[in-house]
Structure prediction request, 755 residues.
Amino acid sequence: MRDTTSDLPISLDTVTVRCGAVSILHDVTLEIAGGPPTVLLGPNGSGKSTLIKLGMRLISPSAGRITFGGRSSPGPTRSAIVFQKPIMLRRTAAANIAFALSAAGREPDAATISHLLSQVGLAALADRPARRLSGGEQQRLALARALARAPEVLFLDEPTASLDPAATKGVEDIIARTACEGVKIVMATHDLGQAKRLAGDVVFLAGGRVVERGASPQFFMSPSTDAARRFLAGDLVL
Amino acid sequence: MQLRTLVLALTALISPILSFGSAEAQDKSIVVASTTSTQDSGLFGHILPMFKAKTGIDVKVVAQGTGQALDTGRRGDADVVFVHAKEQEEKFVADGFGVKRFDVMYNDFIVVGPKADPANVKANKGIVAGLKAIYEKGAPFVSRGDKSGTHSAELALWKAAGLDPAAAKPAWYREIGQGMGAALNTASAMGGYVLADRGTWLSFKNKGDLEIVLEGDRRLFNQYGIILVNPAKHAHAKKELGQQFIDWVISAEGQGAIRSYQINGQQLFFPNAAVSG
Amino acid sequence: MSAVNARDGCQLNATDAVQLIWSGDANLFAIVRLSLAVTLAATVLAAVLGMPLGAFAALVRFPGRELLVVVLNAFMGLPPVVVGLVVFLMLSRAGPLGELGLLFTPTAMVVAQTVLITPIVAALTRQVIEDLWAEYREEFQAMQVGPLARVRALLWDARFSLVTILLAGFGRAAAEVGAVIIVGGNIDGFTRVMTTTIALETSKGNLALAVGLGLILITLVVTVNALAWSVRRWSEKHAA
Prediction:
């Protein structure tokens, strides 16, 4: 029986995340609903990764509440994530996908596996040990693993931060295509260009707070806060 | 498929072990606790096949020092004890661990030492004089130091000479705590003297520079005895099979088998079981 | 009467040892077979007992876990002769498990060697699985992998390290003499293995023969390792 409850909207209410004495996120109130990709934009250390981990319920708030599709528990059941440095299992690419399918409660049959591999352009490398793939190939395999969960929401944490432009393009194309197929994308990036290319709406973070939020072309053309303006101009925002 | 072949191969290799536990009860076999010197001499390899051919009983010899062998009997881990330390054996029976002690055979002890003979032991006629010579010279002497029959005999001989190096522990007195073979190896390597039983000496293959420097003193007589472990103390002890072995060993046939064991034409052990039963 | 035991007076040498193998001397073959059987059985048992224990210690937080890890690590260095003595006291007729009548049998030798190498297998497995878990943790959390699937995945992904661990255990057991000689009794034709034969031949002064047998033992261990290596190469080519 397939789970038909929704994980959207993801709603944060004055959420604070502390690590020891340090606050990584302060008083964040935010709602992420379905629709075009939401990009979390901001300099390093602004709390983007933490926000994503909250969205996947890999961590819990130190203060405040977070709900998924209106419920606070159980957490998200139809979400998936691609980490910045994904870890490949010590098996072939195909076996990695099979593992992800099994973990998601889906049948790891050959047809599904090869379909997922084709979606990310790795069909030819199905039997290659995953750890021997290049950085870009591993990122795409991680994407395929996430897609194996047939997610409603796909979180991506700086997916192309360590890739060259050609590999970056490959990954961005898959993301765009996935978004077109109806999957909600929530992506963290500090790359302005990438944000412009992919965003439907932007959440701008700095210093652990949500500084500004806006729909895509408008935010980039006329940001309303000073911090956002300085960031878009290329200044270091502390 | 690879896995299956591997599992089958492993099972084939390991199955002899797995079958041993259960086959135990049906096997006609006994455990005899004996000494390393008897084993090292090769006697068992000679007489046991004859016993097996006659009775079909497997004799499993566990070779330890005399002290350990008697302890094995006390614990009930053996069915028969076959050692050469008469006093300890008699105490074993007196304490109720053994049924009855029988004389089996004797051999003698000898003193071996380096050809150069630094303590001039060869010039002496008796063991007491010989030991005194070694003591005075401070020549290296290897002691078993392991409470074995040979060790007990050695200590008794020092005592007869009025000396006690085991207590004084002078540097030239080397207690190694091991069996006869190891003692001979050590003596050979360090050019020292050692008290050995003739049986082990004759069959020892690493004589090196060693040779017999003293023999023939009547004090060097070494008697072997055999005892059945008392089934009253250990109900599981195989008393019928054990008794069969003892009966054979002291019978004319067994004694003949012992007599016939020779190395280089020399007889090692001299059977002397009492004629009357 | 076996050629291994007597040849009047003259010293057996290393080439004689090789000749014995070549001619398929039955007694020597039985000794080699028993050595392999005892050590392989102990290695398999140690894997069955030690690997789940190691994985458990790696993945589950329970009171006393730190102590268990320290004990397992320390017991990697258990002296074989001490293990032999303790197992002897347990299996002796005068001991708690005397009823089983296992003393001076090959089964007792398997037990002693299993006790000896299980800590090695458990301690090293714990380390390997713990390191791997630290690496996989976030991904497994994100993929919502259940506890059983987690353990299976970790053990499978660590398979090459685990094989190496088993080979280490095998090597340790194959090399030891202290445990098997006490609990086995070195009985001719019954509990005599390579290492105890070498010890015996040494004490009989057959030093060259002992060396020859030692070389044969080393060759056996090298062969086992080579087999394991080629299995690994094969499976790397056809990676699952």
Q: What stands out?
A: The CA atoms of residues 63 and 129 of chain A lie 43 Å apart. The interface with chain C takes residues 56, 58, 80-81, 83, 86-87, 89-92, 95, 99-100, 102-104, 127, 129, 145, 149 of chain A (CB under 8 Å). The radius of gyration of chain A is 18 Å.
